[in-house]
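Our collaborator T.R. sent over the components below with a one-line note: 'Predict the complex.' Nothing else. No constraints on interfaces, no templates requested, no preferences about which chain binds where. So this is a plain run: every listed entity goes in together, and whatever single assembly comes back becomes the starting point for the next discussion.
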Amino acid sequence: MPRTGVPARKRKSRQWAAWAFLAPVVVYLIAFYAYPLYRNLDLSLRHYTVRSFVQGDAPFSGLANYRTVVADPTFGTALLHTVVFTLVSIAFQFAIGLALAIFFVQHFRLSATLRALFLVPWLLPLIVSASTWSWMLNSDSGVVNTALGVVGIPPINWLTSPTWALTSVIIANIWIGIPFNLVVLYSGLQAIPAEVNEAAALDGARPWQRFWRVTFPLLRPVSAITLLLGLIYTLKVFDLIWIMTKGGPTDSSTTFATWSYRLSFGNLLPEFGPGAAVGNLLIIMALVFGMIYIRLQRRQS
Amino acid sequence: MTKPLKTTHLKTATGVALTAIMLFPVYWMINVSFTRDTDMRASPPHLFPFHGTLEGYRAVLDQQLPYLGTSLLIGLGTVVLTVVLAAPAGYALAKLRPRGGAVLSFVLLIAQMIPAIIMAMGFYAIYLKLGVLNSAAGLVLADSTIAVPFGVLIFTAFMAGIPEELTSAALIDGASQWRIFISVILPVSRNAVVTVSLFTFLWAWSDFVFATTLDGGGAQQPITLGIYHYIGNNNQQWNAIMATAVIASIPATLLLIVAQRYVAAGVTAGAVKE
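Returned assembly:
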């Protein structure tokens, strides 16, 4: 909004200046965001072979790629895995993150240092976390199976059996996501004035009641934002699964993200059209939750 | 408020125990990086590297240095590109009230939500046609897409908090907007520059998605691909793999030690409204 007292001529020159400052980013967004996305959309609407991919003369095929993808037996599996991977991951990340945030908000000796150390898993490159977990979950020499053996549980083929592959990548992903939930929920808890809890305590509310009746409702806006961001981040997880299991064995840990990549780059004969189609379906899923997130944040501010 | 000393000690002890559990995988990575080949498949695995070896680290020095150099180069390049693009945009959105600014902010929020794996496919198609696959410059450009929207949003939020008086004095002296941005706004925005640079560097350094799609056959490859090839090629030398992983974790560790407050600020930025 133009402020009163600023002459019209000056306002106009300020508009020019503003867009001069914004021009590089606008050009950048068009060239390196919009155009790759357009290319991806175009890929999904044409019938590509390796030859026509290079020459760029693939015939338009409408929604054929999307029909192929939906009819593929992998579609249902990948959809189910994407949903399970996302929901189970964020449920655990959130619950553990919240418990830790409540613990750390009490301030004790070393609490700030320990809380900082909790950030490490989130900051490590994904290839580092993924390869470390791969070795820890190794069937024969992994430390996880050794630990299970101590309590009498027989070794599990974490990464090589179809029953456990999805569980394995979910475990690693929960570990990576806890820090983000901890940090955001911690800052949300800090924003709740201490007097509110003290008043409830004076009224005779027990700690458990105070949490459910006072803290949790006050934390609801931050919780909603945390969960939605978690949802958007988790939907697009690719590196972790690809490095640990490549989506296998036989699709048992395939999600939309890894399926899309495998179609385009994982086979000797790339299927760029179907790969792009799966990718675009993933974008739509992410954007649906993204819109909810933006609306929620608008309403809160 | 005098709490019994015992309960706070108990809390500290619990906190240390929880942190130890959480960081066990990190410890394990370090432990394995020092483990001898002969002990690698020992059952049960050795919990401490008593018969430690530096073989793994020697292998890193022999084979991985070029990858580390490339990653450093790509990280720094991405930081420069991101700050140069994002800082002026942040200033305009925060202080110059452009018409259509709200739409642009909205587009930036949406851009952050697009999975990198899909961007990578689009980039692949474009780079193939332009013949710039397998180049470090191409990777810098692609990596910057992870950071630019975040950067603009951070700069906007930070610069909106700079008091109006600071710029209006300069305006009265007849300084141009560019002059004000360079000599008034940027110097006081140091914290934002640091936050954006740190996160950008970390993301570019850690990137695997763009590297594997756009630089899979290049002469200059980043460390993430170095580790990935290692896992694929020699399944046996886990000490070398984990030693490389330890080295690849150094930037994250430094970041946490040197710039802890910036990290927390970056994580919560956008998620929680002040």
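Summary for T.R.: The two ends of chain B are 29 Å apart (CA to CA).
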